[in-house]
Amino acid sequence: MIFITGPLFSGKGAFARTLCPEEQIIRDVQELAAREEDLPALARRLAKEYAVVVATETGGGVVPLDPEQRRAREAAGRLSCLLAQEAETVVRVFCGLPMILKGELKP
Predict the structure, then answer these.
(1) Alpha-carbon distance 67 to 73, whole Å?
(2) 59/53 Cα distance (integer angstroms)
(3) Please, is 61 exposed, middle or buried when counting C-beta atoms within 10 Å of its C-beta (0-12, 13-18, 19+)?
(4) In angstroms, rounded to a whole number, what is the distance separating the alpha carbons of residues 98 and 15?
(5) Domain locations in the chain?
(6) CATH superfamily entry for domain 2-102
(7) pLDDT means over runs of 10, the chain (107 residues)
(8) DSSP codes joined into one string, 46-96
(9) Is residue 58 classed exposed, middle or buried when 0-12, 13-18 and 19+ CB atoms within 10 A define those classes?
(10) Threshold 0.90, pTM exceeds
């Protein structure tokens, strides 16, 4: 599985589409984290079911005052860490530029 992360509107989706067919991609998995009790199981399931998993980085801004929003943000960050561990390749996309953090992209 290839895990792609980066800021909102950074080109993650466009880059993901260059790697495999649309049906093998899942996006915005950070939103699944807030509703999930077992984050390691979610990460394993996503890694098994999809060729490419895309998450938007959520921890780079102002910390929310609302406790529920803080919990959701923490869960999203933890899920991203777990997905990075599960992934063969991790790519961060910033300003449309993919940067390989782990592994390699196969042609």
Answers:
(1) 10
(2) 18
(3) exposed
(4) 8
(5) 2-102
(6) P-loop containing nucleotide triphosphate hydrolases (3.40.50.300)
(7) 96 96 97 94 98 91 86 94 98 97 91
(8) HHHH-SEEEEE--SSSPPPSSHHHHHHHHHHHHHHHHHHHH-SEEEEEETT
(9) buried
(10) yes
